[in-house]
Amino acid sequence: MRVLGVDPGLRNMGWGVISVEGSRISHVANGICHSTGATLAERLLSLHDQLSQVLALWLPDAAAVEETFVNKDATGTLKLGQARAIALLVPAQAGLAVGEYAPNAVKKAVVGVGHAQKEQVAHMVRLHLPGVSLAGPDAADALAIAICHAHHLQSAGHLQRALSRAGAGAA
């Protein structure tokens, strides 16, 4: 299974694709979509087009997007939310279920601490995915989101199998 992680941003939208085979994960690809255009609409369209190309090229089976971090600048938060909408829309258009994770949940899943620094996240991504060449901090964050989602999917699968076995045993 391939999992796409997306770190939404209006200027730079990080993305990362990992392969999950059982409990083993490996790096497939990562990069950054850089928005272009003079208007907000043009920038959002450029992100949509670039992320659509990523999906067409790497064909993920599942996707996850980081939830928006709300800051003191309402205008900035709103624009980030619009970029996040693109990050949610593109995989949904491709028919993928999209997981959503708070930044602290991603950090806890990858680093073990919910308030880790960006450098710690990148370091742990390198440990999880030996030999990976990161396109930048946004791509490292996107891979961390993909890893978090992979762990979540694995846990959900284990729980579902256990419940199935328990139900079969009770019958």
What this model shows, in words?
The protein has five helices and five strands, in the order E-E-E-H-E-H-E-H-H-H. The protein is an alpha/beta fold and 171 residues long. A five-stranded mixed β-sheet has the order 3-2-1-4-5. Strand 4, helix 2 (74-93) and strand 5 form a beta-alpha-beta unit. It starts with a strand and ends with a helix.
Concise structural overview:
This protein has 171 residues and is an alpha/beta fold. It is 54% helix and 21% strand. The chain is globular.
The oligomeric state is single chain
Shape: globular
- Quantity of strands, as a count: 5
Radius of gyration: 17 Å
What's the mean pLDDT score? 92
Q: How do the strands line up in the largest sheet?
A: 3-2-1-4-5
The tally of helices reads 5
Instruction: Tell me what portion of residues adopts beta-strand conformation.
Output: 15-25%
| Distance separating the two termini | 32 Å
Proportion of residues in helical segments: 40-55%
Structural class: alpha/beta
